[in-house]
Amino acid sequence: MRLCRSLTRCLAAAALVLACGALPSWSQSQKAPAAPEAAAPAPAAASAPSLSAPLEVKEANPPAPEDLAKGDPGGALTGTVNDIPASDAKKGLTLADTLNQVGQNKVAINFVWTLVAGFLVMFMQAGFATVETGLCRAKNANHTMMMNFMVYGFGLFAYWVCGFALQMGGVGATANLGGSAPLNSEFTIDLFGKTWGLFGTHGFFLTQGGTYDVAVMVIFLFQMVFMDTATTIVTGAAAERWKFAAFAVSTFFLGALTYPIFANWAWGGGWLSQLGANFGLGHGYCDFAGSGVVHSVGGLTALAVAMIVGPRLGKYNRDGSPNAIPGHDMVLVLTGCFILAFGWFGFNPGSTLGASGNGALRIGSIAVNTMLAGCTGSFGAVFYMWIRYGKPDASMGGNGLLAGLVAITAPCGFVNTVCAAIIGLIAGVLVCLSVEFFDRVMKVDDPVGAISVHGANGLWGVIAVGLFADGRSNYGGSWNGVSGSVTGLFYGDPGQLVAQLIGVCTLLGFVFAASFVFNWFVDVVVGQRVSAESELEGLDIPEMGALGYPEFVLKTYRDRAPLGGIGAAVPVRT
Amino acid sequence: MKIAGLLLTLAGWLIPVLGLNFTSSNAARLALCLAGMAVCLTGILGVLNKAFLRQAIWKQ
Question: Is the ipTM of this complex over 0.90?
Fold first, then answer.
């Protein structure tokens, strides 16, 4: 009890200093309507102890060394005042030391939260790999898996070289992560009397512009895995006929330029995020975790590549009617969907970039919204297929789950649970309609439904922010430089919907066009599509030199094509 | 045909962006956004995709 009372006194003293304005984030939250008791400690501030005066550590009743030597099975003796380092050993522990430790603890919590969330998102690559490979034919398993595997390396390298700098080089300080002040240089132009941020210029190779910095590294890791998610979406739509070399070049371009530029406009302090401050459109373009930035960018690039590459041989008959080409492993598909749903708990809640301060405790709400939308998304797709075709289609059930998760990614931080469920349900039906539309009407061959899951539902998620944001979130009192909470059309702010729709037009107009032009250029110069012979044979041997499932297919190849690479070492069974 | 589709797609983006300077009315901006989206989708799905379908592999 003595220990508790002493610590309470220490914390009260810390609160007094904070109330005097030591931290700007606190003074912002003072303006928020949800903190009516915030002004209460002010009269006592005059009696606050000196920051540099030594504290009487004994009052905190630290555990004696002989008690510690006996071990601490209950955990009551571990993590006490003894663990706060004094900056001056002669003077002893001061209030300044205690406050510095409090600040570092906050940043440490946020570092660990953001990093662990980033690790979860990185693991989503495994989910994408299994979903896409399962939905392709066995003869292309190695090729599809390798594209999903190498997209991580190609994308990461491009993002490290220049992508990160272009995206986040001018984002400014990130309060939850302790500053990251070196990211302070944005290339801008003046247009219509306003300043338009176009791309960042600090952070090339993570050293230029003073970016060899602990907070910058955390931001880089988290943003890099998001970019990799966008790049891996494309491999699904172009699977089973995409040249590996063309894939490598296309991925590098997406990670180095297209993705970072749009991400800068939305998240890096660029012009889309400033639509609220510059033109009075709500809080500017709001995309909490990336329905637009990540999924629509990936989905629309996938559309561009799928159009250029063309449909697989046998997908369409001469009269244009489509043939179903089923994947080879539904177990792999649904396992991958679960892995993706698990990783999404890093994707969405992790986008607070912290668990402490600036409204980051909303992570619980964000996680529940994420779960709910995924759940109703799979409901929507399964029931749609059940009613329309008489069976609850498994692959569309998985795509419905992913569609719900994609759609809630932008609004997850701004909506309540009922709206999250509605957004997910609509996404589940939308993905089925979109798959049918692209397959039958547009005749764009997308083996895994990536264009519909990520492209169409990414755009739906962006629009959903403008409709359903309930104005109850509060991330440090403002968003995109506009005070107050993000509020959609249904809660009274039509300007937010306009900002979101401008984002949609930018995705459709700029991102698609940029991706199309570059991939068209690659097609003209080196060719995007494999030969018809390779496609019929399966891409594992012609492109990768080894089979994904040698024991299944080896007999087929015995007399037709010599095995190369690892495949050459596999003994032929007779 | 492909170039025309591409230009149409880009035009669909520029309509609402340039419109920001011409009006401060949310209703007008909303209308420009919807028009921009329609133009973009026409460019991508109506013109560009149709150009690729003309030489589709399953027609050969």
Answer: yes
